[in-house]
């Protein structure tokens, strides 16, 4: 596997908590994915009015430390449901990482 793209989209806070647990497993506990670039796209939904910082906090990603180059690259992009440009920024980050490393 060359990369992981995780799409987080929730209409309720309960769904956010479920995705938080999934992400915890993928980011911190799955050795098979330890060196794989990880792109997380957080889709803003009208039902939950959270800022980018709040979304990252609720998903438990605010304390992810990438202290050295040997740690998997991980990037979070908060995207609007109908704004294609935000998605493209995330895909460009992943493409750049895969082609330059």
Automatic annotation (TrEMBL):
Gene3D superfamilies: P-loop containing nucleotide triphosphate hydrolases (3.40.50.300). GO terms for cellular component: endoplasmic reticulum; Golgi apparatus. It is found in: Endoplasmic reticulum; Golgi apparatus. One of its GO terms (biological process) is intracellular protein transport. GO terms for molecular function: GTP binding; GTPase activity. Transmembrane segments: none annotated. Keywords: Endoplasmic reticulum, ER-Golgi transport, Golgi apparatus, GTP-binding, Nucleotide-binding, Protein transport, Transport. InterPro entries: P-loop_NTPase (IPR027417), Small_GTPase_ARF/SAR (IPR006689), Small_GTPase_SAR1 (IPR006687). Belongs to the small GTPase superfamily. SAR1 family. This is Uncharacterized protein. The lineage of its organism: Eukaryota, Viridiplantae, Streptophyta, Embryophyta, Tracheophyta.
């Amino acid at each position: 596997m060359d990369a992981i793209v995780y799409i987080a989209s929730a209409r309720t806070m309960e769904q956010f908590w479920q995705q938080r647990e999934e992400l915890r497993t993928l980011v911190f506990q799955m050795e098979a994915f330890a060196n794989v670039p990880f792109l997380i796209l957080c889709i803003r939904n009208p039902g939950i009015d959270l800022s980018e910082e709040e979304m990252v906090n609720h998903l438990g990603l605010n304390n992810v430390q990438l202290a050295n180059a040997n740690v998997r690259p991980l990037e979070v992009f908060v995207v609007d449901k109908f704004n294609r440009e935000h998605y493209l920024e995330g895909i460009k980050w992943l493409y750049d990482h895969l082609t330059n490393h």
